[in-house]
Design a protein that fits this description.
By secondary structure, this protein is mostly helical. The termini are far apart. The chain has six helices and three strands, in the order αβααααββα. The protein has a three-stranded antiparallel β-sheet. The radius of gyration is 14 Å and the shape is globular. 46% of the residues lie in helices and 10% in strands. Strand 2 and strand 3 form a beta hairpin.
Length: 110
């Protein structure tokens, strides 16, 4: 069984720069191991392809959905009905957002 991140600061860091996300995307960001998250989050983009980790995907059941939704609500995300699914949005800016965005290097077009 996969476990969710240990504290609110780590959860906020993993969700930094994401003001809108689906429950599945939040689940992946919150439950993947640190080294996998760091590898996915290392690029300049704030969106990345979800990992093809079988254990991570297998753990996405009803209990994991409820836990992830609870964490999102505690962190200030509000559920909103999207086109095909519910998305979670927030409007406030966190310190982690600014820190995450300051680490992104500018894209050089050639």
């Amino acid at each position: 069984m996969l476990t969710i991140v240990a504290d609110a600061a780590e959860a906020r860091r993993r969700l930094a720069s994401r003001n809108r996300l689906t429950l599945f995307c939040a689940y992946c960001r919150l439950h993947m191991p640190h080294e996998m998250f760091d590898a996915c989050d290392a690029g300049p983009s704030t969106w990345w392809d979800l990992p093809a980790d079988v254990a991570l995907l297998r753990g996405y059941g009803s209990e994991a959905k409820l836990t992830t939704a609870g964490v999102l609500l505690l962190l200030g995300y509000t559920p909103m009905r999207g086109r095909a699914t519910t998305v979670y949005r927030r409007s406030d800016i966190w310190k982690e957002d600014l820190d995450r965005l300051s680490r992104i290097e500018p894209i050089v077009y050639q």
